[in-house]
Amino acid sequence: MCGGAGTRLDRGEKPLFEVGGAPMIDRVLRAVETSRIDTAHAVTSPLTPETIRRLDGRVPIIKTDGDGYVTDLTAALDRVDRPVLTVVSDLPLVTAELIDRTIDAYADGALTVCVPTELKRRLGVSDDATRAHGGRELSPTGLNVIGEDDAETIRVSYDARLAINVNRPSDAAVADEFARILGGEAVTNGS
Questions:
Q1: pTM above 0.85, yes or no
Q2: Residue 184 C-alpha from the chain's centroid
């Protein structure tokens, strides 16, 4: 999913924003390409013309209207077979290993990967969307599997790499620091 306006980050097209010296979309695409995913698509919109140009010829593109995440996701799901793994372009520390773990955890219906909201707060990253589940406050990560029905399973991860969505400049600073510590491995080898 790489078609959002990126207004909270306010740094141009969000998928092209660099973390650890590489555009977030390249980091995410590398993780997807080195995972067990068979076919990848980039879901774009008129809000991301430079992203479309960057991805053209690298991955099939599904163009949506840019009316918001849920609307664009729904439009994209109408064009692919399910189950489908979705990952947002502002999750720059995602790795093939994390994607493969999500695939392994999937049974049927929908799988939503969340992190404890407290983890996001401790890391100093934004926690815009939260939900209560099992007596805990959780934050969706942007990594999901969507199947044929709506029965949802929540998978809780304590992995900081999934807690860092880049929505604001302060999130970008945390992501850059983690990318520096990890040595850019998400881009170079997908681990």
A1: yes
A2: 17
